[in-house]
């Protein structure tokens, strides 16, 4: 074939999944393959012929392999326009019609804890991909094995050329990948400079290549998508091991449940509906925590999303009983538990969630995104029973009556739950006879803290001596008085109101212990 007639493909990849199939199809269609040294060696080991780029550039890889594709001939072969074949001939370069390139796996290396991450920052790979994306109608970029099957099919249906619509979509995916790749690297650099006034802003790229469209959004007439961040864990990376595909609302509810449950050191179970905690229980074992959470509000549990911070075994499955649930999530679902759930509840969604997806929380606004750190920092999952993931350091009792030592864990529990409830939030919690910590009532999303206090008072059912936690201060004594009359023995609140003196005086008059945390935990 003449230089202008034969098609040429550039292959330089770190992820070699499916590369043999793509390369073989290209050869079968008469393409000539050019590959970087490592990729060429791998192809030869699979009996696939490819010319090394060194034979085009005229130089071997330099400085430990960090310079191998940064060459005018390679980039001219990618970027040349249709009327620039003469310049390619002068350079002795082919015209690349396909650039199959993926980059050093930086995010994966960071997740593994590799010591020299700078060596995993790819320079030549993104440069070639971006060049191909710019010239996509003449040199289609292929940034991931996810696209190999589609490219193979398109080449067979279009006289060996990538159709314009697919080339444009590959270009969009390439720049989305490039943005995510750079954001992951920027976040790593910024992570070491976040102390002090010159702290670098964190980055949080969303990986379009790892995302997909959902069945619909919050309502059936809305479209919805899931985009995963640069980390590998968290709810966005959860593994569905059983049940129907996840919906937009399933993800939103699970996120609310997981953010709360992973903050408890003790075995814990959280039930959420409409992104709001319904019941929460922390206990000595996961089955006890599930039973406590379910027993605290049967009506709310029906149709709920359940998150557990310990692996689910067969004993935990028994604790679920036969009540209808949307989904169950945990760090792991054991083989025996999966078997029981598959037999009894084949439609139930079961997910395994690996830790936290990163410290940043996002909220969209018109034209932008707000981001902030986790309210309590990075909480651990699976730490020893009897310790707390939330500290009471800096808390102070401001009343004549002081909480008992037994109240301490319950106060921390109620405070942690309050932080996960929409403001204005008030949470009532008690200690059961077996030592379990469980919510009695949860009220949130109110425009008045007094309304939240009244809602809790209506739900506690005449019990006495429970702990109440409020995510913000009480500006007046009326909310406190409602809780005290309903049976609260201890109230935890941030303090800091100009009306603190009157509220403390009212607590003393009602013989209620009050603790100021010095920290508010609003969630809007």
Notes on the protein architecture:
Helix content is 35%, strand content 20%. The chain is α/β, with parallel strands linked by helices. Helix 1 (19-28) packs parallel to helix 8. It starts with 7 loop residues before the first strand and ends in an 8-residue tail after the last strand.
Strand tally is 21
CATH architecture of the largest domain: 3-Layer(aba) Sandwich
State the domain count. Answer: 3
What structural category characterises the helix and strand content? alpha/beta
Provide mean pLDDT, rounded: 87
Quick one: CATH class of the largest domain?
Alpha Beta
| Beta-strand residue percentage | 15-25%
Distinct helical segment count = 18
What is the 3D form? elongated
What is the CATH topology of the largest domain?
Answer: Rossmann fold
CATH homologous superfamily grouping of the largest domain: Methylglyoxal synthase-like domain
- Strand order in the sheet with the most strands: 8-13-12-11-9-10-18-17-19-20-21-16
